[in-house]
Amino acid sequence: MKHLRSLFDLAINEFHEVLALADELKRKMASGDRTELLKNRTLALIFEKSSLRTRVSFEAGMIQLGGAALYLTNDVGWRERESISDFVRVLAEYCDFLVCRAISHSTIEELASHNVIPVINGLTDQSHPCQALADFMTMQESIGNLEGKQLTFVGDGNNVARSLLNVCALGRMKFRLVGPKAYHISSKLFDRAREHAGWIDFDQCEEITPMIKDADFVYTDVWTSMGQEAESASRNAAFRPYQINASLMAKAPKHCKVMHCLPARRGLEISDDVIDSENSIVIAQAGNRMHLQKGLLVWLSRQNKITIA
Ligand code: CP
Ligand code: NVA
């Protein structure tokens, strides 16, 4: 069974298939065509952490495709009333897809290991594949062919950065990370991403100018991710030199676009003037979450033979 536990689940041709489907569905929707490719199908959502974009974009997207989304709250007793194994095997009797936002990546692996329902990672401590796929779509819309273009991530080598590393390798973009060394991406992950995509162009260091001077896109995310709140004072101190503001952007090319997965801590990792500048594409990124995930759901339904149309 095909899942999206992380971007390691997508081969290069599959990565391009998902993007092409998302693009097609987005264009069709703009022209008033809302073909119900997932009519009467159901998507369950379990979230162990807060969400606006992931939750609502999956729910709205599923409804637009003619199906329904069930957002499961505490009363289903997730992790309290029964084992994950019983929970997911029962859920698969009713639903066609499952999105899970989990504190630990191992939860996604465990859900998928039963192979009873396609499991989609809606963010874990390790990765955020739907975000990175949607970001690739947004970058493509913004400047066209991305091969050889450069994305520079400024800040924490976190779940979002790690998934961006994967999409850059799959899409043949250069990926740079700049931030304090203690928060860099591990060489193990970098090796695995290179092996998976058969290619990589990656570098990371603490010095801003060399990492940013050729960037086509500059990306940041919060310095303190959900669940790391106890570390926020030390993180704020470590990352302060890496705020994306006007003086940092002055080191980047004029055409360079600004990205953030949102939610943003304005005044910390990014200044108001930059996130609201005309080079900012953060709202387009959020919008594409829905279009990308519609493409992903239809692609998964075809892979797993649960398509009705
Ligand atoms: N970017 C993102 O995943 O946002 P949410 O946490 O609101 O889902
Ligand atoms: N890195 C952030 C992303 C939120 C969408 C977090 O995990 O909290």
Overall description:
It contains twelve helices and nine strands. The chain folds into two domains: 136 residues, Aspartate/ornithine carbamoyltransferase (Rossmann fold, 3-Layer(aba) Sandwich), CATH 3.40.50; 158 residues, Aspartate/ornithine carbamoyltransferase (Rossmann fold, 3-Layer(aba) Sandwich), CATH 3.40.50. The model has no long low-confidence stretch (mean pLDDT 97). Helices cover 43% and strands 13% of the residues. The radius of gyration is 19 Å and the shape is globular. The strands form two sheets. The chain has a five-stranded parallel sheet with strand order 7-6-5-8-9. The two termini are 20 Å apart. The site of norvaline (NVA) has 9 residues, from helix 6.
What are the salient characteristics of this protein?
single chain; Rossmann fold; about 45% helix; binds phosphoric acid mono(formamide)ester; binds norvaline
Topology:
Blueprint: H1 12-30, E1 42-47, H2 53-64, E2 68-72, H3 84-94, E3 97-101, H4 105-113, E4 119-121, H5 129-143, E5 150-154, H6 159-170, E6 174-178, H7 187-197, E7 202-205, H8 208-212, E8 217-220, H9 232-239, H10 246-249, E9 257-260, H11 272-275, H12 282-303
Parallel strand pairs: 1-2, 1-3, 3-4, 5-6, 5-8, 6-7, 8-9
Helix pairs in contact: 1-5, 1-12, 2-12, 5-6, 5-12, 6-7
Phosphoric acid mono(formamide)ester binds next to helix 2.
The tally of strands reads: 9
Listed once per kind, the bound small molecules are: phosphoric acid mono(formamide)ester, norvaline
Helix content: 40-55%
How many alpha or pi helices?
Answer: 12
**CATH level 4 superfamily of the largest domain:** Aspartate/ornithine carbamoyltransferase
Order of neighbouring strands in the sheet with most strands: 7-6-5-8-9
Please name the CATH topology of the largest domain: Rossmann fold
Q: What class would the helix/strand composition place it in?
A: alpha/beta
Report on the biggest sheet.
5 strands, parallel
Unreliable spans are none
Shape: globular
Percent range for β-strand residues: 5-15%
Q: Mean pLDDT score, rounded?
A: 97
The ordered string of helix (H) and strand (E) elements is: HEHEHEHEHEHEHEHEHHEHH
- Domains (count): 2
Ends apart, CA distance between termini = 20 Å
Rg, nearest Å: 19 Å
The top level CATH class name of the largest domain:
Alpha Beta
> What is the name of the CATH architecture of the largest domain?
3-Layer(aba) Sandwich
